[in-house]
Amino acid sequence: MTAMTATVNAAGLRRDAAAERRFFLSLSLPSLAVVGIGAILPLFWILQQSLTTARGDFTVVNYTALLTNGLTWRSLLVTLELSGGTLVCCLLLGIPLAFLLASTSPRTASRLMVLVLLPLWTSILVRTYGWLVLLRRDGLINDLLVGSGLVSEPVPLVYNFTGTLIGMVHYMLPIFVLPTYAAMRDIDGNVIRAAASMGASLWHCFRTVILPLAFGGIVSGSVIVFVYTLGFFITPAILGGGRISPIAIRIDRTLSTLQDWGGAAALGILLLLIVAILGVTTLGATRLIRSKPGAD
Amino acid sequence: MLDAYPESRLARALLWSFGSLVLAFLILPTLIVVPISFSGSDMLEFPPRSFSLRWYSSFFGSADWMAALRTSLVLAGLTAVVSVPAAFLACIAIDRQGGRLARAIYAFAVIPSVVPGILLAIGLFFVLARLRLLGTLGGVLLGHAVLAIPVAVIVLYPAVRRFDWVQLQAARSLGAGWGRAIVGIMLPQMVLSLVSAALMAFLSSLDEAVISIFVSSGANTTLPKLMFISLRDQIDPTIAAISTLWTGLIVAVVLLFAARQRA
Questions:
Q1: Among A96, A118, A196, beta carbon nearest to B30
Q2: A118 chain-B contacts, CB cut-off 8 A
Q3: Contact at 8 Å (CB) between A97 and B23?
Q4: Fold of the domain built from segment(s) B74-222
Q5: What pLDDT score was predicted for residue B262?
């Protein structure tokens, strides 16, 4: 009799546990529904649109047209140049800044950090407008350049590649500095003291001790910068002034001037593929490097 | 960190001067708009020769700008109200579920943060057209909630993880239902995380431009979309006034938050 009660109880408990699991699982439904309708469904629709004709038949003509069009390759090249250029600038500007932050007292560092975080929190349109004002033909930068006699007449700094690159570097730099600074701050000061006591110069110590120890942070920052900038739209649209057309701008133009949904959708899938491939391979490479003993 | 190198003054001076230049680069575009916004001239001149508040009155006096401001503020508020509770519940589900399914739910919820905005924008444009929601507030809200949910999940998940569930089991054993236990025991302990998630969701919506450019229109045009359109056409100093107000708001929020956390 008791044995039977025990099995009945066990079955009841199992049922309760299962019901509880279902209840907790169901709590994720609102988020999943919003993301499903607002992000996944649109992506599937783009995929479907890229593979169908206006009449709804299956076709790959959008892709063949895309890949045989020289404009596609040119905008792909511009996209990679902008992302690569942004990454190089972030490395050159961001590593010294992160090192400065890591080498000062925590008090000073947190004050300087406000200057890094303020642009991060400022609207992208506000920042783009600021650059437009600074970089114009009769803007502050050109006034300074001409006034100091460095150049004889104003340099074209905006509505071109340079302006777009400056805007993108400005957008990504804080995002790059955060993980790099975090990695440098966590370096044990005794390691540096040990290097110094054995006669390493500061430069030698920076190259052979600090940089390798901060490598993880630098790589995470780099992956974010490179992959994130591949889809940039606002900055090239305003600071590029119509002369710079990375893929995101081409998508917009294919839609607004040509009304070509199939072509725009195929371009979109191309962009998504590049982001996915580069994202997955760089993340995979990072893991590989990190899992190697002694590399981190 | 560099106490082992007291004699390398030159290196330190170089580091400081280069670092200061980089910091100036970061802060300059935000600062330059302030004097421009008080300029009395139609031209963008720096330094301004005369001062006035005309660009502020041109902002506050324009029905279009005011409608866009109202839309953006309402939208940002609604985005926070929709996305934070949804993200909070999802975090509970992820934490309680555990294992591979939980990782899948987490990955699904943060997908929108890694997809290029332009793709979400054109895809959403079509989906909303099908649902006859194009140009409605609800349609833009869907787009903004999609972007705010990953932000809120990333902010809230560590807090939910840290939470001690034994407290809820105690409340349950004393007869409270799950709803009552979560609201009565868990929520009060997470106020700070929930407030920062709501703030981040609010700001992410206020700043969102790409989706708005494609799916908001007419009376529901957002402030960033209107700014984008007028930036593409001409460099109107009214934008400088808006930028100054915006940056002022951000500085105030950041300072308030910093003061709160210290208190």
A1: A118
A2: 26-27, 30, 247, 250-251, 254
A3: yes
A4: MetI-like fold (1.10.3720)
A5: 62
